[in-house]
Amino acid sequence: MATKRKRNTAYDKPKKNGGFRGFIKHSLTESEKADFDAWAEVATPDMYWDTVAELIAADYKFGIRKDSYGGGVQANLTCADPEHPDNGLCLTARAPDMKNATMLLLWKHVVLFDCEWNEYYESSDTKSAWG
Questions:
Q1: pLDDT (average), residues 18-26
Q2: At 98, which helix (H) or strand (E)?
Q3: Would you tell me which CATH number, out of the four given (3.30.360, 1.10.890, 1.10.10, 3.30.160), belongs to the domain 22-120?
């Protein structure tokens, strides 16, 4: 009989093999929503698709799917570079359509988090059980 593998719970350090560590959870404030709206007015499709291409070339995984949790579309970006502090972390964005989900994801990555998410990550070991 096969033995069940124990789940790795060492989420506080990047994994050398590019394994999944967790999600960056951040709800936008009203001020951040206004900042995104202003940014989205000047963003062009070439700009954000070029940024997606650059991120893929830098060993990020980009995905888009139907958001069955809240409806609409979910875009996600996962760092797979074993040397990067964000290795194994996944940043997500949800919106009513693919264009806005992608734009919001890129805005979060480039503008809000300044291309570094690790300091915003709360491992399951550090989160409070309350609330």
A1: 83
A2: helix 98-107
A3: 3.30.160
Instruction: Report the percentage of the chain scoring pLDDT > 90.
Output: 54
Q: Where along the chain do its domains lie?
A: 22-120
Distances, alpha carbon 10 to alpha carbons 15, 40, 75, 80, in Å: 9, 37, 26, 17
Under a CB-based contact definition with an 8 Å cutoff, are residues 108 and 120 in contact? Answer: no
Instruction: Tell me: pLDDT of 95 over 80.
Output: yes
Q: Is the pLDDT of residue 89 over 60?
A: yes
Residue 130 has pLDDT above 60, yes or no: no
State the DSSP string of 27-93.
PPPHHHHHHHHHHHHH--HHHHHHHHHHHHHTTEEEEEEE-TTTSSEEEEEEE--TTSTTBTEEEEE
Contacts for 47 with CB less than 8 Å, ≥ 6 apart: none
**What is the model's pLDDT at position 6?**
42
